[in-house]
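User: Protein folding is very new to me. Would you mind checking the protein record under this note? It all follows right here:
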Amino acid sequence: MPLKSIRFWLLSAFSMQGGIERFNRAILHAMYLLDQKKAYNVSAVILHDYDQMENSYIPSNHLKTFKGNKLFYLFFAILQLFKREAWVIGHLNLAPLGYLRKLVSPSGRLIVICHGIEVFQPLKGIKKKLLQKADLILAVSSHTKSELIFKQNVAEEKIVIFPNTLDPFFNLPVNFSKPEYLRKRYHIEEQERVLLTVARLSSSEGYKGYDQVLNTIPQLLKSGWDVKYILCGKADASEGMRIRYLIKELGVESHVILTGFIPENELADHYLLSDVFVMPSKGEGFGIVYLEAMACGREVVAGNIDGSTEALQFGKLGTLVNPDDNDQLFNGIIKALSQPRDPELIRRSMLDFFSFQKFKDRLDQVFGKNS
């Protein structure tokens, strides 16, 4: 029997701007649209958010938020344990809720979403038990699926690859020209080529690959490329200090721009300002930023050892390099800078795989077939 009543439990969707939050916003909107077809009855329960940024993703009567109050959130979950509905657990940090649900209601369907890094190391305890108890696991990439099989000993047949999508309300540019106001803000000259990374700059996450990009800047300059590297993202105090020290040590202060946090309404313009989006990550579950860059018609260079391969469709949509090989990264950047660009083709090719419509159809298939 297809699922009819579905409750989605998640940590946050609107209070932060990370990849998981973007995924959550997309799936909330997809769930609501499916609900509107009267095929399903869906609702969502969010721990950390105060409210939606706007009502466009899902109406408030389908959504309950707890403003970070873990006790009230848990109490509400306990009240729902015996209801005849399927549960979707949006993150392994909510494993206690999912595991408790399976204990008291073994026949209730339980779907767990796995994004990436949270399953890249062997788990134990309740998180491990939840993965074993789940009826279905949605993995955002084939890399995440492999890690679930080999690191967590999850049966392959209960894992479905469920890739990310472009935000349904992402501001697609009507043309691909570089925004003049950002050129002036960052003092970008007409002849300068711009490399861009958009990432959270955290001392606890050393896998995004911006260090490797910084290390290529002197080599690019020596090779005659007049480049600026724009690194977007809020940095914690220790990471910000470390990055600035590395920039000074490399002697590239005049070629690197640290923007800090970029507001949502300027994000697409920053992609447009760039010539190449480069993020040679080593621990990405998927990487929605790659899709956003391609939606803005920009060439992408990414790492070839994590979920980035899924976002670039294993090299069909961009250039994949070994993030630990400086020469490969250098040559990959030069290739992306040198090849003729057809921005509309880049966008269209990405949407062929990752449009929101395809994402919604995949979710419909999961709900429709999961008995």
